[in-house]
Amino acid sequence: MKNKEIPYKIYLDESELPKAWYNLRADMKKKPAPLLNPATHEPMTAKELEGVFCEELVQQELDCDTRFFEIPKEVRDFYKMYRPAPLVRAYCLEEKLGTPAKIYYKFEGNNTSGSHKLNSAIAQAYYAKKQGLKGVTTETGAGQWGTALSMACAYLGLDCKVYMVKCSYEQKPFRREVMRTYGASVTPSPSNETEVGRKILAEHPGTTGSLGCAISEAVEKAVTSDGYRYVLGSVLSQVLLHQSVIGLEAKTALDKYGVKPDIIIGCAGGGSNLGGLIAPFMGEKLRGEADYRFIAVEPASCPSLTRGVYAYDFCDTGMVCPLAKMYTLGCDFIPSANHAGGLRYHGMSSVLSELYDQGLMEARSVKQTEVFEAAEYFARIEGILPAPESSHAIRAAIDEAVKCRETGEEKTILFGLTGTGYFDMVAYEKFHDGKMDDYIPTDEELAVYRAKLPKIE
Amino acid sequence: MKNKEIPYKIYLDESELPKAWYNLRADMKKKPAPLLNPATHEPMTAKELEGVFCEELVQQELDCDTRFFEIPKEVRDFYKMYRPAPLVRAYCLEEKLGTPAKIYYKFEGNNTSGSHKLNSAIAQAYYAKKQGLKGVTTETGAGQWGTALSMACAYLGLDCKVYMVKCSYEQKPFRREVMRTYGASVTPSPSNETEVGRKILAEHPGTTGSLGCAISEAVEKAVTSDGYRYVLGSVLSQVLLHQSVIGLEAKTALDKYGVKPDIIIGCAGGGSNLGGLIAPFMGEKLRGEADYRFIAVEPASCPSLTRGVYAYDFCDTGMVCPLAKMYTLGCDFIPSANHAGGLRYHGMSSVLSELYDQGLMEARSVKQTEVFEAAEYFARIEGILPAPESSHAIRAAIDEAVKCRETGEEKTILFGLTGTGYFDMVAYEKFHDGKMDDYIPTDEELAVYRAKLPKIE
């Protein structure tokens, strides 16, 4: 019945590891809107950005024309420790669902950071090292990005300073301990270490923090410390560039077996995984060489694409970062405390926002308990305990496969399994104990944050 | 300098997955001593064992002559979800150590159980299913075996009842939660559910349990429940048989590149990983076809090979199991509460005990803090956060590689990296905080337990 010639797991050879990252923006006719200086509302110059980011990363951030960026040898060598990542044919899941659909997933969880975040962490750490910096600062929410950056910095001998959203810091002591194992210093945010942190603490005593706030602290720390720059694990175009390695490998693996996906699904928080996974496929679509359906899956509790507006907004709560045009809920929006896992950023990558606005990509939101139901179902059948973030994509993939069962269509579905849930057992426990709810922000709530969006032009 | 033609990771093709397990006992001239009936001191018959274990597993347990057992198709299909496991060339570690040694490790941690335990769990669950049983019972200490068995049972639709050593149950709530995700029921041991549990609780109120005690409870539960059998994750010859898949894959991968290891190192608790890793290499040694050095590495806090005696002993605290001849510390021995991770069994696989007694294998013990130093060093260089158990082998591998640096010898070292440490962050935290000690039992203490060994002939 099934074409058993396709193995359960397709591992590319090391020699097939991509030699260059693919810059999707080069194939976009209408480019994403530029970052703006929050004071002048003029496009940010390289010089301005270089106070915050490493020089070569600034070049990558601003370049909408160069199609490929060579992956430095040092980064490729690091990649070889955990890449190529497997492309898995979900035979067991297909059989259990009784669907004629063919399901594939690109599994990025086989490394200690537990996710795809390492792909960009090592790149960003490499450029910081190359520039002769002492270290980097960053923020982390669920902790995957902070872990990934700690690993990359340990490998290169860079100092790593992580501001961890306070509620995660307290709820995920083991994530913290992994970062410590890799020599990083981890500070709960908001903290008293920065001016913006002190200001937020004064205005909101007892706050458990947010990603936007931790970003502000990390940026301030970078620009006020000698020999430090700030790095970010999602949202930015440079991150999507590095993450294109996911899609490039997936496409090479599928091409080897003559398989063309009909639907490509990824979870979407800031967009790092989704942007990386779809990049080469979307490139073909933009060039008119092939067509695919792309589905971004976001949490119903933080629905930037499905319920946000496409507008210029601050990337952080402290408003120290450049303005980015994106689908956003407003930079003060914080998802319900009951929301488990990542995907809690108020905005969305400018690249993906623009593609979505052009109608080249679909988006849907899913409720938390539906996500965990899919996660547990998947774990029992495919053996891998997925991260809550990744499980958003699993939910949508299962839903699409069930539709195929009903229509009899033999569609090929590809989704991104971004990581593992080993550090998310508190959330799983809540789910098992029936203590997880599906809080969804009301229109009135969203309107409050929307009203505070900066007025640009 | 380094032969870069060998990739960082050697992944065999699915078609190269072993089709049969290798039974090392077939090549042993002097066979391991048989299991004895504790009442009669006569060798256990198949019929007697079948009250406790599944029928086909009893055959495997008793068979010292059949060289290969075919791996059932269903088990091979399950293996394909996470196997072949990579053989990794530790280029980064070699470079950092500045050693001329070539270091390889077989990494068994890329699955949700986090260890090699899944290799035998699926085999044992399969035979239980085939026999038409309702479910299986088992014990777990560090939790890897319990997780693996839960996964296998979820996949096959078998009930799974796990007795978890109480201190682990309390210290590792996330392990418990993973098992629950896979539908297993988990009971802290000793419990009031069994006669032996009640007896132990009465004699030792407030005890935090031991592996030997949890085994007794699981066995009692199996033999007193309709449609249940007991399964065990280590020590037994059947387990070593299933785990031979580790060594067979490693050997195939090395042979492909014409590499012959000089030294093969594995951590040793009950012996499941070590026995599996060395099997095909030891087979060559026994048949006079090749020579290798084998090193078993055990914790100094539970030194069954290096400080135990080779004698018949009970496998469990409750003395409900058959007697096995093995290197043992005495069935009442419990390692210090300060001992982190697994490798806490009082005895050692009969097969490995016999090989060690014949001088075919070396053994050494290492202190806990030395193990965690090696673990953290390895994590920062090779990217993988190792389990404390696996880190015993890392310690010895590093020590051997450093010797090579001193002597200039270009030895090839192979070690087993059995699993990941994601659920061991409490132990890592202790280590970071300087709260880990190196308690080693005194000769006087060991003599007390030794005096209680059963007198057989």
Describe the structure.
The structure is a homodimer of 457-residue chains. The first copy, chain A, is α/β, with parallel strands linked by helices. The first copy, chain A, has 18 helices and 15 strands. In chain A, strands 1-4-5-15-10-11-14 form a seven-stranded mixed β-sheet, sandwiched between helices. The first copy, chain A, has a four-stranded parallel β-sheet with strand order 8-7-6-9, with helices on both faces. In chain A, strand 6, helix 6 and strand 7 form a beta-alpha-beta unit. In chain A, helix 5 runs parallel beside helix 6, helix 6 runs parallel beside helix 8 and helix 11 packs across helix 12. The termini of chain A are far apart. The model of chain A has no long low-confidence stretch (mean pLDDT 95). The interface between A and B is large, with 42 and 42 residues.
Descriptive labels:
alpha/beta, seven-stranded mixed beta sheet, homodimer, four-stranded parallel beta sheet, 18 helices, 15 strands, 457 residues, globular, 16% strand
Fraction of residues in helix of chain A: 40-55%
Indicate the multimeric state.
Answer: homodimer
Parts with pLDDT < 50 across at least 5 consecutive residues of chain A = none
Mean pLDDT of chain A: 95
User: What is the radius of gyration of chain A?
Assistant: 20 Å
Rough outline of chain A: globular
Question: Sheet with the most strands of chain A?
Answer: 7 strands, mixed
Instruction: Estimate what percentage of residues of chain A fall within beta strands.
Output: 15-25%
Instruction: Label the structural class of chain A.
Output: alpha/beta
